[in-house]
Amino acid sequence: MEWMFLPYRRYFEFSGRSRRMEYWMFMVFNVGIMAVLAVAMLAIMFAIGTNHPVPGTNSAQALTQSFANGSGAAIGAAAALLGLFWLVTIIPSVAVTIRRLHDREVSGWWYLAYLLTSWIPLFGSITTLVLIVFLFLDGTPGSNRYGPDPKGRGLAEVFY
Known about the structure:
This protein is mainly alpha-helical and 160 residues long. The chain has one domain (2-136). The chain contains six helices and no strands. The protein has helices at 2-9, 20-51, 59-68, 72-103, 109-117, 121-136.
């Protein structure tokens, strides 16, 4: 459970290294929260669309009418919660991704390259695949130029 919240404690920390466990548990937690909020928003939309039927209208017209009656406030609140959670999570997500790349001894600028090229049809697919491979691979054992190994692995000390 600690792994899910560690990136929030390291909010603006873009240097150093992060383990795979920290990255993937944080991402699973975020996807789960966003999925729950999105399902709640869709459930509210469905409930509004089906609970206020007006004879002779389809579901889109019923939904529009329910918004006009003020029922859209619940959808707005759910959407606001989803947006607020995304805003709070975006910086730690970028930071933990950069630290995860550092664990592989890859510059964090690769993440910027991914963000800039992900919209290009073929090239974006290639950069997405490369990023996913980097995120799944184990970190370099021992210290690297970005810091000590977060798993504590390294070369054995020589006895003098």
